[in-house]
Amino acid sequence: MLTERATVVADAAIAVLGEGGSRALTHRAVDRRAGLPTGSTSNVARTRAALLTLTIARFIDLNTEAFGLIADQAPTRPAELARLLAEATHALVVSDRTRMIARYELAMEALRRPELRRELNRAGDSVRHSTRAVLVAAGSTQPDRHSRQLNALIDGLVFHASVDAQPLMSVEELTAAYGEFLDGMLS
Question: Taking 70 as the threshold, does the pLDDT of residue 175 lie above it?
Answer without folding.
Answer: yes
